[in-house]
TrEMBL record:
The protein's name in its UniProt record: GntR family transcriptional regulator
PROSITE patterns the UniProt entry points to: HTH_GNTR
Domain HTH gntR-type: from-to ranges: 6-74
Gene3D superfamilies: Chorismate lyase-like (3.40.1410.10), Winged helix-like DNA-binding domain superfamily/Winged helix DNA-binding domain (1.10.10.10)
Biological processes per GO annotation: negative regulation of DNA-templated transcription
Length: 224
């Protein structure tokens, strides 16, 4: 296969990314050897390595000793977004857990309510909206602790790989429902976090809004 124009690393990367996106190369699969892949794409091995480096930087592939480049498998949402984490205000480590409180199929969307707890205390209310066509037959336990994280389930059960996400945040007064769920006094301010999660093909596969009780916990960001 020859690329339609000058074989720059970005064009090679786009071809490789598409193969991951359409499932030609599923999670856990080893990519073809670099010499044969470079020949197929009509690029030098140096150009191919740069394309592979971009995919590795995007956490779409990983290097595995003895196997070369392998399509990444999600083991946790924390591993994908390692620079975000919840902290207690005093800096002490907290025991985290989560449970789904409801799943509703609303036309073309699936709406999920999730509660995150730290040390057994309700700290975050989440509202997650998914495109129904990407998650047919979605089956998750309600009112029980989740055994796998959401993004891991997306990939394993539905073949949807979250490649990256964008977040924005700001303070607001908790509405009545959020105050009830998080056991907050009326008028309590909360941190609102809006996230868009994208798959490998840059399609939005999840919209998530989180409301965080910041009286005893913080949303930490470590910049690398």
């Amino acid at each position: 296969m020859k690329l339609s124009r000058q074989p720059l690393y970005a064009r090679a990367e786009a071809v490789l990314r598409e193969r991951i996106a359409d499932g030609t190369w599923p999670p856990g699969m080893a990519l073809p050897a670099e010499p044969s892949l470079a020949e197929e794409l009509g690029v030098s091995q140096g150009t191919l390595r740069r394309a592979l480096a971009e995919l590795e930087r995007s956490r779409l592939i990983v290097k595995v000793h003895g196997k070369g480049s392998v399509v990444a498998v999600h083991t946790s949402e924390r591993a994908l977004f390692h620079f975000f984490r919840l902290r207690r205000a005093d800096g002490a480590k907290a025991q985290a857990s989560s449970l789904l409180t409801s799943i509703e199929h609303e036309g073309e969307e699936i709406v999920i309510e999730r509660l995150r707890l730290l040390d057994g205390q309700a700290v975050i209310r989440e509202r997650i909206v998914l495109p129904a066509e990407r998650f047919p037959g979605l089956n998750l336990p309600v009112n029980r602790e989740l055994e796998t994280e959401m993004y891991v389930h997306y990939q394993r059960a539905h073949g949807v790989t979250v490649a990256h996400a964008e977040e924005s945040m700001g303070a607001e007064i908790a509405d009545a429902e959020t105050a009830r769920i998080l056991h907050l006094p009326a008028g309590t301010p909360v941190l609102r976090i809006d996230r868009l999660a994208f798959d490998v093909a840059e399609h939005v596969v999840e919209r998530r809004t989180s409301w965080l009780d910041t009286r005893a916990h913080r949303y930490g960001i470590s910049l690398a």
